[in-house]
Write a structure and sequence with these properties.
It contains 1 helix and 9 strands. It is mainly beta and 154 residues long. A hairpin with a 4-residue loop joins β8 and β9. The longest helix has 20 residues. The protein starts with a helix and ends with a strand. About 14% of the residues have low confidence.
Length: 154
């Protein structure tokens, strides 16, 4: 038989998990790392560069371990090359956290039979972050849609 003290503790812990996000106004993870894409229109069969800039939202920190991870879903229309390795841009005050990020670069080549038009590459972006104001850390997994445009060969 469960003692009344143990039952009370289990109830309190369960309620904390259920109402905690409501009390603290967190119904979903904030977008702490904002991705900015820089890509010119691509021609079918011609290699192009996609630069991804990462901006850390003010009031948050991103720990170096575990490092952020971007996984691009395979696509039959595009050949994708490059390593998505997160490198720090400058040294910050705290060696455990990124100060900023150097841009990521991917080589993207539309297949020779890819028709002109607008496309998107899907993927997932996973990272940990810490709120400096609210003093908590969390993990988030965000779906990505990277916009691409293929133009006719000249």
């Amino acid at each position: 038989m469960i003692s009344s003290v143990r039952l009370f503790c289990i109830t309190i812990i369960s309620l904390a998990f259920l109402i905690g996000p409501v009390v603290y106004g967190q119904t979903r993870s904030p977008q702490v790392l904002q991705l900015q894409y820089d890509l010119k229109p691509l021609a079918a069969g011609v290699d192009g560069l996609l630069n991804i800039n990462l901006v850390i939202r003010e009031g948050f920190k991103v720990p170096k371990r575990p490092a952020p991870r971007i996984k691009i879903s395979p696509s039959s229309e595009f050949e994708i090359k490059g390593d998505l390795i997160f490198l720090e841009d400058g040294k910050g005050k705290d060696p455990e956290y990124f100060n900023g990020f150097k841009p990521l670069t991917l080589h993207i080549k539309p297949g020779s039979t890819t028709k002109p038009g607008k496309y998107s590459l899907g993927g997932e972006f996973v990272y940990f972050y810490c709120s400096e104001k609210d003093k908590y850390c969390s993990r988030t997994a965000e779906n990505l849609q990277i916009p691409l445009e293929v133009v006719a060969k000249k």
